[in-house]
Amino acid sequence: MATLRDIKSRIKGVKNTQQITKAMKMVAAARLRRAQENIVNAKPYSRKITEMLQHLLNVEKNFSNPLFIEREVKNISLIVVTSDRGLCGGFNMNIIRKAEEMINDQFADYLKSGNLMLYCVGKKGNDHFTKRNFKVEGSYPGIFSNLKFEFASGLIKDLTSKYISGETDKILVIYNEFKSVIQQKTTVEQLFPIKPFEAKVNEPVQDIDYIYEPDRISIINKLLPKHLNAQMWTALLDSYAAELGARMTAMDMATENAKELIRSLNLTYNKVRQASITKEILEIVSGANALKES
pTM for the whole thing? Predict the structure, then answer.
C-alpha cells in the first residue's frame, strides 16, 4: 500500500500536470481565434476566384489547358497534412489512418510498383511514413510555427511543374477541415487534374456579356495558379485551425481528468491518514492497557 508521502508526491505531480494542460488549453484557444479569423478572411477570396473561373469557362468553349486534361494515371501523389506536435487527440491518427486506407484500398498497385509519392506537410505524418519506408518525395516539417502563403504558392508551383512534365498524373491532398472546436472533418481533395467547375444547386445563372481585356483565355490562365494557391492555402489554414481546436479539446479533457484524479487521490490520502491515526491510537491504548496489567 502506498505511503502518505507517495500519495502526497503524486498529488503534487498531477497538480503540476494540470497547470500545464490548462495553460496549453488557453494558448490553443488564443491561437484558434486568430486561425479562425484567417480562414474567414481567406475563403471569400478563394470562393470569388472559383466563381470567376466558373463563369469564364462556361463562356469560353474553346479553352484547353493541360491542367484540366484527364490522362492515364501511371504515377500518383498524395499530400498528407498533419501537425508538427502531438497532444491533440486523434487529429494526426485520423489523417494517417485515412491515408493508409486510401493507399491500401485504391493505390496498392502504385505502392508496389513504386509509383506512389507522398508529400508530408507536418512532422507527425513525415515521421510515421518515413519509419515505414514509404516513398516520401517531399517533407515539410515545422511550417505551422510560422505559416505563410508563400509556402502554399511554392508547393503548388513545384507540383504544377511535376504534373505538366508528366512526373505525376494525379495529385490529392488529405487534411482535416475545421468545422468547430470539437469537430474536424477528414477531407480528400483533388488538386490535379483540375476538376470541372460545377454550379451550385439553385445558383442563379448570370447571362452578363462582360468585356474582357486582354481576352478570356489569358485571364483564365492567369487565374488558374491563383485558384490552386488559394485551394492549398485554405487547406493549410483549415488544418491548422482544426489542430488547435483538437488540442484545445484534448487539453480541456486532460485538465478535467486531472481534477478528478486529484479528488480521488485526496480521498485516498485522507483514508490512509485516518487509518494511520487509528492504528497509532490503538497502539497507544494497547500499551496503556499492558502497563495497567503489569
Answer: 0.85
Q: Which domains, from first to last, does the chain contain?
A: 4-23+251-289 (1.10.287.80), 30-247 (3.40.1380.10)
| CB-based contacts of 130, cutoff 8 Å, min separation 6 | 120, 136, 139
For residue 241, report the phi and psi dihedrals to the nearest 5 degrees.
-65, -40
The 10 Å Cβ neighbour count of residue 252 is 18
Query: Rounded CA gap, 206 and 227, in Å?
Result: 21
| Identified catalytic residue from 88, 99, 228, 258 | 88
d(CA 235, CA 43): 10
**88 is a catalytic site residue:** yes
C-beta of residue 99 within 8 angstroms of C-beta of residue 256 = no
Q: What is the pLDDT of residues 80-119, one digit of tens each?
A: 999 999 889 889 999 999 999 999 999 999 999 989 999 9
Question: Which cell goes with 90?
Answer: 486523434
| β pairing state of 136-140 and 170-180 | unpaired
